[in-house]
Amino acid sequence: MPQGYLSIVLHAHLPFVRHPEHDQFLEERWLFEAITETYIPLIMRLERLHLDKVNCRIALSLSPPLLTMLSDPLLKERYEKYLVSSVKLAEKEVVRTQWTEDTAQVAQFYKNRLTEILRLYQNEYQRDLLSRFRKLHDKGVLELFTSCATHGYLPLMQSHPDAARAQIRLGIETFKRLMGFDPAGLWLPECGYHPKHDTILAEEGVRYVIVDAHAVLFGNKRPRSGVYAPVTTPSGLSAFGRDLISSRNVWSATEGYPGNTQYREFYRDIGFELDLEYLKPYLNPDGSRISTGLKYFKVTGQTDKKETYQPKEAYEQAYSDAEDFLANRVKQIKSLAPLLDRPPLVVTPFDAELFGHWWFEGPDWLDMLVRAIHKSDEVALMTPGDYLDEYPDNQPMQLSLSSWGVNGYHEVWLNGSNDWVHREVQAITQKMIDYAQQIKAPSGEQKRLLNQMARELLLAQSSDWAFILKTQTHTAYAFRRIRDHIDRFNRLEEFLKTKEIDDVWVGDIESKDNIFPFMDYQIYAYDSHCHTQSISR
Amino acid sequence: MAKEQTPTLTKKATVKKVATPKKKAVAKKATAKKTAAPKKTATKEVRAKKVATPKKSVVQKTLPKKTVTKKKAVAKKIVVKKRAATRTLAKAFAKKMSGMAMTKSLVTAMVVEPETDFDLDAEYSVPHLTKAEAIRPLGIKDQKPWKKTQSYQSAEVPELSEQGIHVVVRDPWWLYAYWEINPAVERSVRNSLQPSEVSGLRRTLRIYQLSKSSYWDIPISDFAESWYINTQSPGETFRVEVGILTLQGRFLTLVASDEISTPGVGPQQIDEDWPITDESYWELVSITLGNEGKSGPLQAQRLFEHQLTSGVLFSSEGSSPGGSLGLQSGGSRYPDEGSSKKRQFFLELNTELIVYGKTMPDADVSISGQKIQLQPDGSFSLRMHLPDGAHSIPVEAVSVDKIEKRCITPTVTRQTRTYQSLKKENGT
User: Fold this and answer.
1) From the CB of residue A523, how many other CB atoms can be counted at a distance below 10 Å?
2) Model pLDDT for residues A365-396, shown as the tens digit of each residue
3) Is residue B257 a contact partner of residue B240, using CB atoms and an 8 Å limit?
4) Does the distance separating the beta carbons of A496 and B330 come in below 8 Å?
5) Domains in chain B, CATH or no CATH each
6) Rounded average pLDDT over A10-38
7) Disulfide check for A233: which of A133, A204, A237, A276 has CB 3.0–4.6 Å away?
8) Per-residue pLDDT at B34 exceeds 70
9) Does residue A352 share a domain with residue A433?
10) Is B271 in contact with A339 (Cβ distance < 8 A)?
11) DSSP conformation letters of A368-437
């Protein structure tokens, strides 16, 4: 019997980026890089763990935009092209580097790796990553769940409950349609929790959410178990508080594992270093330099003179970091156990893309951590769902407003660099709700326009845009996206009002922003609908 | 007496302003939500008109920032004139207001006819109001809603006024307010000024801290449309108004928000059903924060409070890329646009060698023992990083019938010398 449990929760998400109007589109590479570096490496390792009969229980949230993109035929095709081209570049690199032995080894490492990923994607996975995730779920390796429709940051929708409801319901609906079963819980985008949404979450059938530590520590009652057991909100939702110290072991820029000198340096990519002519076929069509994924250096230290990456040494480092992480958790659980009336549960949530994309060795670390826990008598893995099956009675309390963003609340998504987004999105949200409440029996045409307006609203709500504006990377694209969706919404509204519809334009927008094919805009009239019902009763 | 009017009011709970649909209606006991701000409620049949005139008031400014006031504002003259308002209008406004939930409320232009004779002696005490807030606007007659309101049939939706103020809690210490002011409202409010008040007007944000029955003002620009308000008060309830402050200290409200509460940051209520000793609890918290082993519970609690107030508790460390800008730029999700770093002057130099040639398209070609692919025309090209030293490149081609074989082996040598100088500036 273990003394405590560790719950590893991964959240995989990318904003909906799909541009059929261009042959190649830079930001689509976010998805491609994440598939190559995170999703496939994770699937490979988890399948291997299962084959090796290692006990593995990990909770993985797949966001609705990501689910949609991973099942999109156009993006699948484009990913394959991208991967084929990456393999070609890696092959050329093996030749190019042959007179520098250590670099040649890394080049060979990438070539083998990418060739294998291409083989898996084309042959074994048949381009279908979702069915691989589904199988891992069926085998009991993963507990799958999902997030809000477009990763909208819920606390800032506090004045529009229907907007929050649409995000929650459409997210769950997307998951059900693409995965074929109910999600185990709901990942609150950025762990953003507002007490007002408690009822909505429960009404939409959400079993659990993950919140940041202060949601629990600043709740209305003193939590009996701190963040080491879930609590039950007034509506019956279970909430798991994040353990800060174990997150810090991994995340921290200064003390976190990914900063180890042996690990691969993220910022040195041949795309920014080699001769432009040579790289041209692998860069953006406009010739601007971008990451190729081929990175030959290790972190080395605080210096510009980086040493060549040594995959084997990095792998060994990942092993020792996995051991270190486990040792720290054992220590932590031993100090917690006497304070609680049941075995403590340490919940460590991460963005999945940390593993592999940012921290290249992350998937190896995870794999070795799971194996080490398998051998441990003191700690066992447990998903939030498993825990609730075993301990259904938890302390009731209301949680505090909170998020896991810098400074704990909404500052990342509401500050001088992006508050205009909030303002504009609120305005179209209000319009959407007004229309939904007033147009109860739409004509076919009205319905079509209103559904597309709802999609545009949702896409504009994605927390990613405000985040990007704040961090000052890719701001032009984020700005463009917000503007596009708001403009499209307004134009559709114009059609709705004037009844003069540009059919071709609407069709074009529908084919681009084709997320949520099952959309019914009436979701935005949900609360008013209930309100009327309760009055008539 | 307020009760008497309720039946004639619209049923929507969100319509907060008490309207006086018939003469002799008296508004008494304004709730905390009521203000003397000019709000209009369109009832089913009637539009109410009202003048609130302060009898007397005393403003006690105890602090420069927060002023404690608690007094009665007496609305003396309430003038009512029956006027038809369409059902649509009432419905549209009510709808709009209900949609705005708690952080937005509407204030629409008030229509006033001070000359009329009904004197209602409407006396009602309004908490936190001062004379400044009781307004006596002068008449705008027959004013229409500032945007055309349409009745809607299927797709038609009334264009609703955007006038209003939203207040969002950003964190326990800060509010974010943004607003839009109907020019007609502003005009009518300005029209209500006494001649002596016209100069030195100041657009002002007034923040009421409801539990303390106090408020403070922030002078703002006429062009400001939003403001971050540092309340420094977790677990408190506020209302925010934008208005005009006269030199005499009279505050004329343009828009008023609903109440909004900041979240608390502890201490929490002890849960008797789920008891834990102080000592154990603070030890738990210490472990969460990685402070364990640092002496007793009191220290743990102090450290926690310190970390809370200094922001350490929520620092990016240990947080996600969603928030963790600590992970350099970019975070984990979005590949970095450029990896170029800010550096001093530099020069980097590398050399590469291109080896290219041509043979029969069906020949087998290998370079340094490695077979290579030919272009359809039989040409080939290779590019290699060329480090210092001597390098031989044996190129071998074999004809498709394996009868002929050609070998060419160039040897290339790279030698590099580097030189650096740094001109010193005068006096250094």
Assistant:
1) 21
2) 999 999 999 999 999 999 999 999 999 999 99
3) yes
4) no
5) 2-139+160-261 (2.60.40.10), 278-311 (no CATH), 352-414 (no CATH)
6) 94
7) A237
8) no
9) no
10) no
11) HHHHHHHH-SSEEE--HHHHHHH----EE-PPPSB-SSGGGSSGGGSSTTTHHHHHHHHHHHHHHHHHHH
Instruction: Tell me the two tokens of residue A470.
Output: 């704040």
| ipTM computed for the complex | 0.90
Residues of chain B contacting A531 with CB distance shorter than 8 Å: 98
In a 10 Å sphere around its CB, with 0-12 CB exposed, 13-18 middle and 19+ buried, how is residue A303 labelled? Answer: exposed
Q: Rounded distance, CA A392 to CA A405, Å? A: 29
How many contacts (CB atoms, under 8 Å) link A and B? Answer: 297
Q: A395 and A493 in one domain?
A: no
Domain presence at residue A324: no
Q: How many CA atoms lie within 13 A of B53 on its CB side?
A: 15
What domain count does chain A have?
2
Helix (H, G, I), strand (E, B) or coil at A278: helix
Hey, which residues does B395 pair with through a beta bridge? Answer: B367, B408
A365 plus A461 within the same structural domain: no
- The SS3 call for residue A102 is helix
What pLDDT shows up at residue B56? 38
- Say if residues A174 and A523 touch (Cβ distance below 8 Å): no
Residue of A nearest to B386 (CA): A99
Domain range holding A480? 415-526
Which CATH number do you get for residue A480?
1.20.1430.10
Q: What is the pLDDT of residues B245-259, one digit of tens each?
A: 999 999 999 999 999
Reading the block at residue A33, the tokens are: 């890089």
pLDDT in tens, A257-277: 998 999 999 989 999 999 999
State the DSSP code for B263: P
